[in-house]
Amino acid sequence: MSKNKFGLEYGFQTRAVHSGNDIDEGSGAIKRPIIMANSYALPYDPTDINWSSTDKALYTRNSGANQLYLQEKLTTLEGCEDSVVLASGVSALSSVFFTFLKSKDHVVCSKITYLAVYRLLTEYLPDKYGIECTFVDSSNLEELKAAIRPNTKLIHIETPGNPIINISDIEEIAKIAHNNNALLSVDNTFASLYNQRPTSLGADLSIESLTKYINGHGDAMGGAVLGKKDLIDKIRKEAMVNLGGTISPFNAWLIMRGAVTLPLRMKQHNNNALKVAKYLESLPFVTFVSYPGLKSHPGHEIAKKQMKNGFSGVLSFGIDADYDTHNAFISHLKVITSAVSLGHDESLIVFFGPDDERQYLYPDEFSNGFFRFSVGIEDIEDIINDLKQAFEKVGLSY
C-alpha cells in the first residue's frame, strides 16, 4: 500500500497519476516495479495470516504486489471502499455470479448485455446450477419491477449496453433492488469510471473490463469488481482464490500504467465520438445512430445525469445497404481497424449481421445488421475522412 493517500479531495487526474504508486524501497525507483514472484516471505508466526488481506502480498493467486497496487488505484478512482482485480472482464463478471448466487436463486438482467453474460445466464447457470434469469428492458423500470421474484438475489445491468448503446438509470434501479433485498451490479465497461461511477449512484458492485478503456492500449487483459468492502472481501475469498481467475503481475503493471492517462484519453474518446455521431446522423443513407450524447437518443437525459464527464467512445449505427455492402465498406477503411473489442487507443469497428444470435432482443432498426464503432483517439479529421472515403467507394455518397 502507498504511504501517501490520494482521496476524493484530489482531482481525478492527480489520483490517476499518484494513487497506488510510491517510491520502491528496494531500488529507489519512483515507479512501482513489476514483481514477477509467485510467493512472498511469511511472517514469524504464519498461523495468524489473513489470506484474504489486501494489506500484504502473500501469494499471487491471493494478493500479489502488483495486484495490490492496481486495486489501490482503482478504488481511489471509483471513490469506493475496496476493489478486486482479476484475469479478465469475464472473470470479474463470473466472480460476481458465482459468489452471490446459489441454486434456486433468481437474477434479473438487462436483455442488452455482453454475450458471455447472456450465455452464462441462459446456459451454464440454469443448466448446471439451477439458477434462473429473467431478461428485461432495463430502461423500462416497470418491466424490471414486474420481473422481480421473492428469490431474486441480483439485478445485473450494463449501461451503456453492448452492443446497441442503450442507457439504464442506475440510481432508480438501485432503489428497486434494495427495496427488494437484492444486490445491484453494473457493468461499467463502456462508460469507464472516468465518465460514470456506479457505486456513487447506489450500485453495490461496479464491474470493469480493464482490458478496455482503463488499460487503453489493447495490450493487456484484466477485470475488476469495485464496491463495499464486505462484498469485495467475499468475492476475494470465494471466487478469486477458489476459482483462480488471477491477473498476472505483468498485466496488472501494464494496466496500472495505462490508467495514468485514462482521463486524458477519455476526453479525446468522448469528444471524437460525439463528433462522429453527429457526422453520421447527418448522412441520408445512415438509418440510425445510437450514441447517448445525441439529443435524439432515448436515454440522453439519463445519460446526462449519470455520465458526468462525457458519453464515452462507443456508438452503433446502421446504413441502408445490403449485406455485401456492409462488409465492403469495412474493407475500404484505412485508419479504422475491423476488429472486436473497444476502448483501445485506435478506432475499431465490427459488423453485427442480421443473423446475430441475440438479434431478437434488439429494436427493429437493428434488424438489417449494424456497426459497433469504438472511436479512438486519432485526429478527428482523419477518422471522419476515413469513413467518408469508404462510404464513397461502396457508392454511398451525399
From TrEMBL:
Gene3D superfamilies: Aspartate Aminotransferase, domain 1 (3.90.1150.10), Type I PLP-dependent aspartate aminotransferase-like (Major domain) (3.40.640.10)
Keywords assigned: Pyridoxal phosphate
Keyword Amino-acid biosynthesis: no
Cofactor(s), names only, from the UniProt record: pyridoxal 5'-phosphate
Reaction(s) this enzyme catalyzes, per UniProt: L-methionine + H2O = methanethiol + 2-oxobutanoate + NH4(+); L-homocysteine + H2O = 2-oxobutanoate + hydrogen sulfide + NH4(+) + H(+)
E.C. number(s) listed in UniProt: 4.4.1.2
PROSITE patterns referenced in this protein's UniProt entry, alphabetically: CYS_MET_METAB_PP (PS00868)
GO biological process, one term: transsulfuration
Enzyme class: lyase
Record's keyword annotation contains Hydrolase: no
Record PTM N6-(pyridoxal phosphate)lysine, positions in chain: 212
InterPro entries from the UniProt entry: Cys/Met-Metab_PyrdxlP-dep_enz (IPR000277), Cys_met_metab_PP (IPR054542), PyrdxlP-dep_Trfase (IPR015424), PyrdxlP-dep_Trfase_major (IPR015421), PyrdxlP-dep_Trfase_small (IPR015422)
GO CC annotations on file: cytoplasm
Domain of life: Bacteria
MF terms in GO: homocysteine desulfhydrase activity; methionine gamma-lyase activity; pyridoxal phosphate binding
A family per Pfam: Cys_Met_Meta_PP
Family: Belongs to the trans-sulfuration enzymes family.
PANTHER family: CYSTATHIONINE GAMMA-LYASE, TRANS-SULFURATION ENZYME FAMILY MEMBER
Protein name: homocysteine desulfhydrase
Organism: Clostridium bornimense
Higher taxonomy: Bacteria, Bacillati, Bacillota, Clostridia, Eubacteriales
